[in-house]
Amino acid sequence: MHTLQILLQALGVILLADFLAGVIHWLEDAYGTEETPVLGPLVIRPNIVHHHYPRFFTKLTWWQSSWDLLLIGMLIIGGAAWAGVLTWHVWLFVLLSINANQVHKWSHQTRAENGRVVSFLQDCWILQTPRQHALHHTDPKNTYYCPITNLVNPTLEFIGLWPKLEALIEAFTGATHRADSSNRGEGPTPAWVIEHRRPVPAATPTSLTGPGSCP
Ligand SMILES: [Zn+2]
Ligand SMILES: [Zn+2]
What average pLDDT does the chain have? Predict the structure, then answer.
């Protein structure tokens, strides 16, 4: 296969992994609640805690923040092997997807915490920059859901994908985007969120917007 063809296919897989991670993130933020069966306590609560205390999950281990993605990734690998379509594209997709939360975590860490390699990859826009991810954490926290690269979000925001999907869902089911209790004026903070308030130092402005060193 031609090298350019391989690179273009790899780029397609990367964009797909980022897009699907964004779709899952959007579903969690927009329609998941703490009362959602099974997923509520396992996935939605940590997500809501993250909106209140963005730096909290930087103290979690890879296993603590990625076990659910690893489980899904193993199911995809198993399913693809069973169907006889376990190509390098599937491996790359799963490798990226199971690390989506880790890349997200790097967006909340300082350059010193991330080290030179990750900071370099962020500076080159190969990994999502903290500056772009900070747009998701801007009230009302309903934009820039994709966590892996800087490439997908601007396109989705340009075409207004998320509000259009939400309008469609509301028209067919009546369900609307859940109010985020971490938004200003959106009611009291739940006690199970407050218990996660720990003295985790905030990322410095420099770490969020520091000058790039990518050549
Ligand atoms: Zn979110
Ligand atoms: Zn975040």
Answer: 88
Residue 12 included in any domain: yes
pLDDT of residue 180: 73
177 secondary structure, DSSP code: P
Residue 175 Cα, ligand 1 centroid: separation in angstroms? Answer: 18
How many independent structural domains does the chain possess? 1
> Ligand 1 centre from 101 Cα, in Å?
11
Which residues span the domain enclosing 133?
3-201
pTM value is: 0.85
214 domain residue, yes or no: no
122 alpha carbon to ligand 1 midpoint, in Å?
Answer: 20
The closest ligand to the CA of 50 turns out to be 2
How far apart are alpha carbons 12 and 16 in whole angstroms? Answer: 6
Length of the chain in terms of residues written = 215
Instruction: Using the mean position of ligand 2's atoms as its centre, give its distance from the Cα of residue 90 in Å.
Output: 26
Residue 207 resides in a domain: no
Q: Comparing C-alpha atoms, which of 140, 33, 13 is closest to residue 89?
A: 13
